[in-house]
Fold these 4 entries.
Entry 1:
Amino acid sequence: MFSNLPLYFKKFSVPVLFFIMGLLLLFAGIKGEQNSMFLLSSLMMFLAGALSIVYSSGVLSIKVLYILGASAGAASLVIFVLSYNSVDETATYNKNYALCRGKSIANLEDIRYIQKAHAERFGRYAKTWEELVAYTKTGTVPFVVSEGVVPGRKITEAERDYLIQFGLYKANQAIDFNMTEKEAYYLSKWANSPEDLKGFKRDTVQRSLLEMRFKNKAYVDGRMKAGYGKFYPDSLPYVPLSGASRKWKLETVDSLQIGEDKLPAMKVSGKIPFAKIQGKADEELWMGSLTAPDIIGSWEEE
């Protein structure tokens, strides 16, 4: 009997190995909640090992084994096609998830920029999407016009006397340092402005928010490079890749008591139509808070 052990080992080792591996993978797949393709592949390996053991024992005829083998081969081909489609579908899903999440974050950052500009202008955040979109199209933001440089010299006594009216000097005050940016600004407005300040300009003007933020070359190129496409103000309220079926939830508070101060607060939140793991609940993103005056995004706290 023991003399036949090498023969039995040679005959059954490979089938038993496949049988055990298939059984372990099947058990691990069920316990680990693997997808159907993994479970089906594990089952095929388990059955292949079982059939090999039965055939090696001499119970099955070669004809029956050929039939079962052909059936298993056909099943394997079907599994391969299904697996390929599943992998392709997963890759497409992951690509859409990355695009949707990235575009959603960009969307929320744009909303934050507009709301900050609105709050600086009116002392509160836009309460509705209609108000925010309208401000995006017609609102303005301050822009500093800077031309010329401050001369590298001390001011004259006549210039000092002119600057007294602005509270920068007192009568007969010593002139110890070179001209400052503020001094140059006031002197450039003087009727007797010196020659080295001709063309000097430091003014704050209002410019179109839409032009300054959303039509500048760096912003446009950045969106195109990321695959987000052209910016449209009317798309701001909608969650990207949702087919305009989902809107961000916009909430605002005009006067939130923070110590002795009263400050505006806002929160924009919503669920994107994808999750990091396919099949899980949709991921939620938000920006801001209704209990604190901060406008930090959830993605910035990760």
Entry 2:
Amino acid sequence: MLNYRNINIIFILLAAIVAALAITNRLSFYWFVPLLLLYTGIVFYGSYYVGSNFFMKVLCSGATERRQIAISFDDGPATAYTAEILALLKEAQVPAVFFCIGKNIAGHEELLQQMDAEGHIVGNHSFSHHFWFDLFSTRKMLADLQLMNATAAAAIGKTPVLFRPPYGVTTPNMARVMKQTNLKAVGWSIRSLDTVIKDDEQLLTKISSQLQPGAIVLLHDTSAATVKMLPRLIEKARNEGYEFVRIDKLLNLQPYA
């Protein structure tokens, strides 16, 4: 299994072999350069591909053959679009999970209360969503996630368990934080790129072409294109026989502590 522990063991052994051969003049010390580059490339892949499970377990899809899918929204609550998305979901009777940023909650507590009242889940997407969040120390990262949970709990009276790593990046420090908390990391199997794709038709085509049983769709309640596209995605998925289920049902997890 390709994970951080196993890769370190393999590369320590390879480095020892290269060192032994170099000392006996059977190999150049320059062989350490491609070895280091290969190691760096693997670690980079493990960090930035959320489904790699390189540092820690991240659930990215449901283990089911039934045509069930879950939709998720990151980065809210947002003044511009979260309320519109909630209205669309209510009309279509589709449940979702909103991975909220703690610093965005102040002044928008009623949106979290609406999410909860209408049967959606509030998840943890960090408090700061800092650009360098993945480089935080274990202690700083833990404090950030605990602050987000406390902020959410103050708004809805429930403490989130589901956590989505900011930017989808995982690290050894994050793995340590997961072990110190009740948080369960959740990724996605379909990345919509709705923060980049501004054409709602293109967005619909991209997502619908990747639908499969157990899929988790990553969307953002900060995107105008998502608001325009969402009703058609729901209709198209249902016409293809898909059922929208809450992510906790799809993954068989408790959403709150």
Entry 3:
Amino acid sequence: MAGEPGPRVSATGLRDGRLAAGAATGVGALLEVDNLQTVLSTPAGPARVVDGVSFAIQPGEVVGLVGESGSGKTLTALSILRLVPTPPARIVAGRIVFNGEVDLLALPEGSLRHIRGRSIAMVFQEPMTSLNPVLTVGEQIAEVVRLHEGAGRRAAKARAVEMLRHVRIPDPERRAREYPHQLSGGMRQRAMLAMALACRPRLLIADEPTTALDVTVQAQIVDLLRELQAEFNLSILWITHDLALLNGFAARLLVMYAGRIVEEGPAADMLRDPQHPYTAALLRAIPRGNGRGRERLEAIPGTVPDPGALPPGCAFAPRCARVMDRCHAAPPPPLAAGPGRQARCYLLEGPRTAA
């Protein structure tokens, strides 16, 4: 079961599964993920969908986890909170240390419930699948406050209205009495944020929180999260396939492909000068919107590989325009790519024979 701790791995045994020993850990880190491995049962056998993922998030830091659908981003987030669907998935190894002392993978389920929602909250892509359609928005937010803080009904109701005001929902007293279907998509996502932040968590995991919204509302939600992050001194793990959303917001980026972090480092440096061909391809696929007529988007050829049938070398090699012979032989190790940066790419060792 995902709720059961996986095998413990020694600190020295983490080197091969860790992208950057220095970047993945940090003194005073709020969240430290070490060598996280999650396996999915498939008809062809077990597939490692989260493969040795390591990173850390500092207090008040915004970190972006970026990659295409099927890269393993959401399963990484669900693994952190031990919410992976069992079956078919299960966590088999790693440590997830919260606040420098609590290994979330070793906690009993009852103790973990006190952390979920109170210390670590999560917002999902589509609020209509997360909100209860038969309870008012105010009731659902108040329920979180009563559950985690033991507040009385009146105090919890007042907190619900206060949080709706915090997320900039107009006339929050009236909206608190409404049901999810009575709100627009943008307002439902704001209501989910209000619920997630009701108990003042220290870490917010936002899984594609703007994907189902139009561009204007997306920008409003991003601006709102900027304000809330500063107001509550939130740490945020923002999961997205859209690098443009994180420009100027995230301090660091983690680029994920086929279950592994293939590049990580300061966001500004990676957006200006990507070192992994996959990161560069994601950046080229961003619409520029220069207003000069129709724009041809640059697509990445091929698709993310089936996690149960990964190629023997670099998982990105079949789609890479800069592939070399050695890329097909073995997965590249993490290599230094600049100050505070690492990437899994043989190009960082210098060019050799092209394939």
Entry 4:
Amino acid sequence: MKQDMVMPKMGESITEGTIIKWLKKVGETVEKDEIILEISTDKVDSEIPTPVAGTLAEILAAEGDTVEVGKVIAKIETEAGTAPAKEAEKPETKPEPESRTAPVPKPETPEPAPAAAPAPVAEKPVSDSTKFYSPVVLNIARTEGIAMAELDQIQGTGINNRVTKKDLLNYLEKRTVPQATQAKPTPASVQRETPVGTVTDGVEVIPMDHIRKKIAEHMVHTVHTSPHVALYIEVDMSNIHLIRERNKNNFQKKEGIKLTYMPFLAEGVTSTLKEFPYVNASIDGGNILLKHFINLGIAVATEQGLIVPVIKNADSLNLTGLARAINDLAVRARDRKLKPDEVSGGTFSISNFGVYGTTIGFPLINQPQVAILGVGALKKRAVVVNDAIAIRPMMNISLSFDHRLIDGALGAQFLQNLAAKLENYDPNMTL
């Protein structure tokens, strides 16, 4: 008996996934829970296991296809012993779509007047099944001020000609670029079609992988959306440096992880965000969304690219709890073991480029957030303290923020308060 394998739901806000690679071919046997394919969402790449053991009978969605959650992507021929159970499930599954589609026309037929009344365009994506838009697409359209009538005109490349995030971003890019500039990409697009590995005049053609494409789209979107402003401040990390040096060996023995500077920064950030809630907000059209919770994103560099796992309710954790959470998410990010929900819902992010020796930088905002903290390398250098020159471990921290919501004064006050918290840790603290 053939068992349907569907596109799994990878998180509350995830409505579709793109198939990156099938790891099995038609005719090959698979074990239950064996990884059979890799998919990518707007949030993260994931490895998908088989629901049953058997033989891969059909592949219904090819690599590169974007498929709606719940749609059948493959069929697995199960063993005879399991066939009756699967057979019993299949007839139950089929009537459900029929029972769902049957009631839809019924309310519309007897009540023609109410059906004609809700003419406003805003209801279109909800009520018209042929014009369904994912939450991601609707959010971008709302942010960019795209009316529903205009959205309906965009040619979609997704399943059933649905408009995907990529379609909308491409449309926005073309819409905002002057005609003279639009003519220029033609040679570049021809070059991108050159066979992979081709070397012409010393130039090798290497296609972007799926994650790099997503990062590129996200970066273009954030620059297009937010007018970025950045400030930075110097922080004397002497007290934190003393705490770390005195506690790091016992901390590693007790917790099994290294004590870094990041938990101190995270704790300082969560505390400061409570005093400056607008830095922890987002913008929805003409409204400000104040978040009464702090979900802290920590940028992690992986072999596949930059990813930002999120510590949910970070303000409820103490220093040790933050250290555990940061380490756990970083390890699983590098091992590609994160769940989509663990890279979504962030309200503020930290990017630590200091691990590579960079002393200062200004990261791009992680949409739809309105600010991000940049952390530079800790360096010992000469500073003036009480009119005397002293050698202190100094760190530059920066704040990139969305000038639509955060003014320079607010950004500067946030940095000043955060710096004061970091400089005033009790040097005698024991962890």
